[in-house]
User: What shape does this take?
Amino acid sequence: MYNQGAVEGTTGAGAGSRVFLYEVLGLRQSEETENNSYPIRKSGSVFIRVPYNRMNQEMRRITRLGGKILNILPYSGVMPTNGSVAETNGSAFAASVTEGNGKATPTTQKSEDSKGKTMTQAKAKHADVPVNTYRPNAPFIGKVISNDALVGDGGIGIVQHIKFDLTGGNLRYIEGQSIGIIPPGVDKNGKPEKLRLYSIASTRHGDDVNDTSVSLCVRRLEYQHPQTNETVFGVCSTYLTALKPGDEVKITGPVGKEMLLPDYEDANVIMMGTGTGIAPMRAYLWRMFKDNERAVNPEYQFKGMAWLIFGIPTSPNILYKEELEELQAKYPDNFRLTYAISREQKNAQGGRMYIQDRVAEHADELWSLIKNEKTHTYICGLRGMEDGIDAALTAAAAKEGVVWSAYQKDLKKAGRWHVETY
Assistant: This one.
């Protein structure tokens, strides 16, 4: 999965309370901004207050709305006098500002303001998790091993599974983390391109289970420019999806401690994902169920229940379809697979079947699982699904006199509710 950002992640004590101030120019009015009450100015800068764990997704939103980030600063509680301030609701790994020359500038200032976090991620500390082994000013140079298409004939868009060789380096990671990719060239201002973050789609041992590779699931970003109607392609995603075996790539990271799997083998793991949001979930499932992966992890033999609810537009867009269905067939008592195919299936109202509709169908069963203290829930992909998921679980919880919003807060505090949406 892709998480666009101009920042490199660092994670430390109190990181979740950090807030940064984005100075943005040129945001356009859109249905999204109207629905979310973002203050948009026709000219001049808008200042957006962004919590630490939402930086990447806010950068993607700004880019999508045609904005340009002029500056990123630690928020001290003092408001600029020439702009308005908003908060944002995304999720991300980033925590430090990257200068134009590619050097990471750590920030340590904390803010007491923790508002605007609709879905805070797990706060558990993972001191042994590798973070920022390679930084933007000294990236690892990896080589492409393979670049394979994931969308079948008749599907929508271009999505690739890309495997990189890590031989000769010290890049180690675990499931649920991300790496940064620095595309070549310069941006429209003549400065070196900044890194973009992508969720890792392989286990810590790599697809070949030899500890020498890392894999990504990348969709080529393509959209119509709102003013010119010109087709615009994402810089980094276009670069990555066109790579050939042997090509060299600048890699940073790993980053992220918020989407990690629990250590206990009898956990229940609920996964709700859309599109390339399948990336971390593929890593989870391989670690849980793949024979060669289980063979090298005698200390972790998953015995719990994993349930993936996967939203895609068409059947050819079911990413990793053969892998998923093979695991389901082999472990029917431990792995449940549910598709929401929006352009082929209908919901109860006769409309398109989205992931939130599937959640509504199975809300009582999901609620029963979520109440189990060994259940962890992971949501990854498009932010639009969150409200529908909350609505379905609100109704299910209410049947037992439980207020879902309050219960969800307790899940977050316990580190059992993990969200990465954009």
In short: The radius of gyration is 21 Å.
